[in-house]
Design brief:
313 residues; eleven-stranded mixed β-sheet; three-stranded antiparallel β-sheet
């Protein structure tokens, strides 16, 4: 029999997901069977697989030791850069100003120096997180940006914060605003654009259509022109839906590709699109662990894209 006292970092997770992450050798079917047989209990009582664990809960597993071998985590993140531009931090989350050229998560060819690895190193060196302390949770990102898109990334410090952030982003209770430098002068100073997007996985590229098609997802992008000169415009974008490459592809579709966007813009583009996720607004509709952020707005002051745009025109 093993006992685990749930710490804050692991709280807010479903029981079944927590167990499977903690004990990767435990067959899923066996876990459900043992929960039904009361061989897996929470606070010495019968439980259900979808129970959300709370801090200080006592988890008891009356199972054979061979299926209760815990996972092991390396310290590869210590090889990541220490560079991390934090614009806000509290006990539950970090808001980071990611620079263009940095990956959010590891991919083939770049495993170590990513935003999430830098976050893990930062929290590890502060003494706020230890891989050995949490059974299943590692600091995680609630949103992501393309390698060459700069802007605000939200990192969760515990599982409950991550769950709330993911839910609020999905329900659009965390509003995201971007700055973009684009080709052309707009006929309308502000407009909400609607179209339909489909992704080609092999090409890592999306295609936009004006009418619904099989496999397409609806996209909504709102823009407001801030400045125009020399055949170029600086716009603010409110991302109503958040699909892969939505802003880049949608604006290109309506004849205003981002400057330096080699994938959706001009062929001579540098693949360093002029796009910055510069502002977040928390518009939370219910009481939750992040309610203290309701109504707050966080923005990148003196955003470098504005200066860069004025130098280009």
């Amino acid at each position: 029999m093993k006992q685990i006292v749930i710490i804050k970092e692991d709280s807010g997770q479903r029981l079944d997901k927590f167990i499977l992450k903690t004990y990767p050798k435990l067959p899923k079917a066996l876990m459900f069977k043992e929960i039904r047989k009361k061989n897996i209990k929470v606070n010495k009582k019968r439980t259900e697989p979808d129970y959300f664990l709370c801090e200080n809960d006592l988890l008891q597993l009356y199972l054979n030791d061979e299926v209760l071998e815990e996972r092991h985590e390396s310290l590869d993140f210590m090889r990541a850069s220490k560079e991390l531009d934090i614009i806000y931090e509290d006990d539950n989350l970090l808001l980071i100003d990611k620079k263009a050229g940095v990956l959010c998560h590891p991919v083939k060819g770049e495993y170590v120096d990513t935003v999430i690895s830098r976050v893990k190193r930062y929290l590890y060196e502060k003494g706020e997180w230890r891989p050995s302390g949490s059974k299943t949770f590692s600091p995680a990102l609630a949103n992501r940006l393309d390698r060459n898109t700069a802007g605000i990334i939200i990192a969760a410090k515990n599982a409950e914060a991550l769950r709330v952030l993911n839910a609020k982003i999905k329900s659009r209770e965390i509003e995201k605003y971007y700055l973009a430098a684009v080709e052309g002068i707009f006929e309308k100073q502000s407009e909400t654009l609607t179209a339909y997007l489909i992704k080609n996985e092999k090409q890592n590229k999306v295609y936009i259509y004006d009418e619904p098609r099989e496999g397409c997802k609806k996209i909504v992008t709102k823009y407001t022109v801030l400045e125009s000169s020399g055949g170029k415009s600086l716009i603010e974008i409110e991302l109503i839906t958040g699909r892969t490459h939505q802003i880049r592809a949608h604006l290109a579709h309506v004849g205003h590709p981002l400057l330096n966007d080699g994938k959706y813009g001009k062929s001579e583009g540098r693949f360093r699109q002029e796009l910055y996720s510069y502002k977040l607004k928390f518009c939370l509709k219910d009481e939750n662990m992040l309610s203290y952020l309701n109504g707050r707005e966080f923005a990148i002051e003196n955003c470098e894209l504005i200066k860069k745009f004025r130098e280009m025109i």
